[in-house]
Amino acid sequence: MANSSKRWGNQYACSSSASSMAILLFVVPLVVVFGLVTLLGPKTSNWVLISNSYPWLWNSQSSSPSLNLTGASNSSSEFPPLNDDVLGLRSSVVVVDMHSIEEAHSDDSLQNRSSSPPLSIEEAVPPTLEQPNGTRRDDYANETQVSIVKAEGQRKNTNLGWLEARLRRARAAIREAKFGNQTQDVDYIPNGPMYWKANAFQRSYLEMEKRFKVFVYGEGEPPLFHNGPCKSIYSMEGNFIHEIEVNKQFRTHDPEKAHVFFLPFSVTMLVRFVYVRDSHDFGPIRQTVRDYVNIVSGKYSYWNRSLGADHFMLACHDWGPETSNSDPHLRKNSIRVLCNANTSEGFNPSKDVSFPEINLQTGDTHGFLGGPSPRLRSILAFFAGGVHGPIRPVLLEHWENKDQDLRVHQYLPKGISYYDMMRHSKFCLCPSGYEVASPRVVEAIYTGCVPVLISDHYVPPFSDVLNWKSFSVEVKVSEIPNLKNILMSISTKQYIRMQRRVVQVRRHFEVNSPPKRFDVFHMILHSIWLRRLNVRVHDDQ
After folding, report:
1. What is the predicted pLDDT for the residue at 30?
2. Which of 73, 177, 327, 529 could be bridged to 91 by S-S, CB 3.0 to 4.6 A?
3. Which UniProt keywords are present, listed alphabetically (predicted)?
């Protein structure tokens, strides 16, 4: 992880950065205020019902009409839905109260899941749900029904109760979408095998547009807060922070109307201004984030009400997961929106969000989108990149300059364009570097090249909606020596289908300013919306 500190961009901020003295003037009062709120702030917490699952598959054999929009159950710790008020993620729902939410999320069996369902490239077939360890559904339902009854009995006619009631209506509408036709939409109608359940996704997206509200905490000053890079490999941090802060549709300035609460710090800026380079000491970053959480939890009641379960952070820097360790509730309970979506390092697909790493060198995508048709792509596969991390050396050892069909280079020859090579390749190899995420995945999609994900423990972006196996190839690190045979085994007909699907899903990865419907900004919000649908918060006060 420490090696990834070398990945520093020359352009960091969407807006001008403050001086080091300005940071000092912010951090010192932060510590002072923290001392006060520690003594005076509220400490009580209330109940949260949260599902441990992974969208979007309907289980036709379930006795309840619980929604699961992805396709397969592959976790030994999953359980079937308990009641018709639960919108399940993938195939399971685990209902817990606030006293056990930390333990539920710290269970390694829930965090270390495979990156995507074991489905064929051509078609996703819903599997039959099975109970782990022989547990009977009725037994499990009896054990957890107490929590459900208690939560229902404690609902009050408050703003929060009104919000939760609206979320229940949204969950019901998404379930019903399976049985109806898609709504006509002048902009875009999701359709095809690229989506786990296109009807349910469309309904969920429309419900998000109609209801979803985000409160952005106003505390903190740039460059650490309310700011981030927009012209670097970590550009999505600054892009999202900027867009959500100027957004008039989803942002609310009234926290009583908010479904989720955003902690607007930039990990990239923390690394640049707070971390002492090459010190390998994360203490200053952790302390800054810890102080910030304590300030907002002392000033507002919302963090303590759910212990952070309806809050989210967003980080594209490799150290995003490490930064979330600043506060135990931030890591275990909050929605962590991460580029570095590595299940072996604690990424939990049931509550965390994977979003794409996009290297916006110029701040936008102008000139990067589009490519020739499949018949004009003469190169089987292409990769060019530095040797860092454990996977790329293996790839280069087996394939660098050894096969005319697989153009694998550490350095491109002079006069050869990186993007032209991608545009004329059928498949683009996307091996992980120091961390699992790679900007090559989106670069491949932008140029119409079928991405080949070479990684272990990586959860691709928007896997709750997108069936990656329909438009990409997943190759285990152990299969790198057999890479050419794997790609050659894909028929021309199948490749053409995959390539067309890449072009179709590209809209979900495009960066627009201002954002456009179904683009990357809205897909990030939709993933957060899905996680919030499975968190139940109520006020005991």
Report:
1. 53
2. 73
3. Glycosyltransferase, Golgi apparatus, Membrane, Signal-anchor, Transferase, Transmembrane, Transmembrane helix
